[in-house]
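Journal club prep — side note

Before the paper discussion, L.F. wants everyone to see what a predicted structure for a comparable chain looks like in token form. Sequence:
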Amino acid sequence: MYCSPSFDIILGPAYVPVYNFLSFLPVPRRTRTIDNFIDFVSDNSQLADMAKNLRYRVPIGTTFFGVDTCVDPIFPVLRHLHKLRSLSIDAEHFCGIGPDATLSQSDTVTRLDLRHVGFPHVGKMMELISCVSMLEDLTLIGYGTNAVFEEDIDIPSLDTVQPPLRRLVVHMGYTVIASLINGSWLRINGLHHLDIHFVDGLSEDEDGIHSLTELIDSNASTLQSLCLLDRLPRDFFMSRIPTIRLHSLEVYPFRGAVLELLTVLHDAFDGIVDNTLEKITIIIDGYYLLYELGEHSAAWERLQRLLCSLPRLRMLNVLLMTMPYESMITDLSSSYVTVADLEVHAAFSELREKGRMTVGQKVYP
């Protein structure tokens, strides 16, 4: 079977020469700005049709008011990439894609047959999302204050167009997520992967838990992978997790809640007939102390015994969460748990012997 070649493009704003192409794409050396690139693809339409994935990087330090200037140049490029399937706007250390810059050019985007979209902002951007009729993968990850406090959120009805979403990742503040997953979003069905994180935390008395529960319930028959990076109440796990035939579960307890999570996980999966779980990932705060690990040894070992009894479980991943700057430091403090400590801890001996456990670091975001 012949597969047409494709390539990925990583673009920066016109004044930042950061183009990177896969090595086999014959792009002239002078192609260093967006204007140069537009000229190039105009003269080489066969190459433009090969582009499948586009990632656009907004410079670090860009303010909310400067986003329009940075994002506008992307739309002339999109008009030439007729076969584009994946579009990602990456704005590290920044949250906000000005709605005017995006919606004024939405016709360009909606003419594309996009399947995967990633943006660092919600708001009126959802008007555009609802028009991408074949969208299967949506990622919304926000950084900074705008990820938490979003004004004038306008979530359109999906009654007319309901994209066949299979993968939904939303890392935003409570207010933003609550607006996303109520109303029309609760009618999303058929999700295979759901990844939700309330970046400003979530307390048990908030309505967000109820909305999240409804969203999971409406997709329980199809969900295969669930990532919940929040401290959710025991009742949530006990009433929902055992009813979903998950293949993969990823959880992250806030600091001080490790013991509670270990207990809840054990009780939630204990006694389930025909458990389908193949992988569990537990992400631990990088400030997990050695004495806490010692105090929790019995709970870790108890969970290990249960996991060893699950016939389909292939792997337990235990990851220590670090921030980008922390990952460059080799020794923050001897009192904190390290990857080396987890690799030799006695509570995981049986899983290690069976080759069913890995440990490592996860840099957030």
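L.F.'s comment for the group: The CA atoms of residues 237 and 268 lie 6 Å apart. Keep this in mind when we get to the figures.
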